[in-house]
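Contributing new complexes? Match this layout with S-adenosyl-L-homocysteine.
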Amino acid sequence: MTGIDEKTELLGLALDEVTNFMVSLGEKPYRARQVYDAMARRRTTSFDTMTELPKTLRRILEEHSIITRTQIQSVFDSSDGTRRYLLTLNDGSEMESVFMPEERRDTICISSQVGCPLACTFCMTGVLGLKRNLSAGEIVSQVILVLNQVYGEGVEVPHRTNIVMMGMGEPLLNYDQVMKAVRFLLDPKGLAIAPRGLTLSTAGIVPRIYDLAREEIRPRLAISLTATNDELRNQLFPINRKYPLEELIKACRSYPLGERERLTFEYVMLDGINDSDANARELVRLLSGIRAKVNLIPHNPAPELPYASSPMERIQEFQKILTERGLPSFIRRPRGQDISAACGQLAARHQANG
Ligand code: SAH
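Output block (do not edit by hand):
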């Protein structure tokens, strides 16, 4: 073996896939459990530290496989504790992950693609276009890398970790790799993220929502709605022309929910565009009968984007209408704005600056 690309990427594989790989090397299956545990439980990123394996085996593994190709390029710290990681992949592509600490839990926002093909007009990633899909290993490596940076490799994380697939990319357009990553992250015998702690956000790839509904192991689902009629949604989300609101809402209505689970609808508040009282009432009507909660997200402006955020008073008035009509909602606090880590701001800026 010569090029790194011929090596098997072990991170992100399920235990039985690691087993097949070990057997193909002529090793005993129990070695797979050791390697998997090292990656998923101890968050080991090199074979050197797998001292439970004989040295010769570590060398063989190094020759035929890799754990991850992700490197930190830069780290940006925000005054509110948010940390943005710019990561470089093997082929020189860049992806970003954001760490948001809170008192009793952390949230890690991860990317599913390099860039994004959807070109939503209020989102900076849309400006980039799609470069490529991430592999399951590259998706998972963001979580491992961030936890290791913050807490140290092998150190038990002191509290809950929430993960949101709300970084760069449209996760449902990279369905297979994203689902592999989901299964890896949720494996109770591995990294063991709590199922309710993993959320996938989509702009509305309707056929994949039906696919997701049939999965045995699923993340929580969030829909980036932001518009309550097709005329406006077509302007904001070009993908709405392919999968209009009626079809999207129909898919949401049939989506199976756990006992206390709600579907999350993200609603980016755009000044004078979608924030009127009438829009709020339209939102309530659209979601009636769905066990839903709404996240009201102040828009993060950028010079490249032709929108401004609704003022906070307007967002509160908007929320009041939802509350009066029994639709639960939360106003999201903008985070990491001083380091361009806020929703929809990732990567494009760095690239624009060369
Ligand atoms: N493609 C997926 C996930 C990435 S976007 C999706 O569309 O959901 C993650 C979230 O960030 C979405 O809710 C999106 O509406 C929001 N977002 C994008 N650009 C934003 C901006 N400039 N300000 C605030 N939220 C933004």
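Reviewers usually confirm one structural detail per submission. For this one: The pocket of S-adenosyl-L-homocysteine is lined by residues 122-123, 166, 170, 201-203, 224, 226, 266, 268, 297, 299-300, 343-344 (CB under 6 Å).
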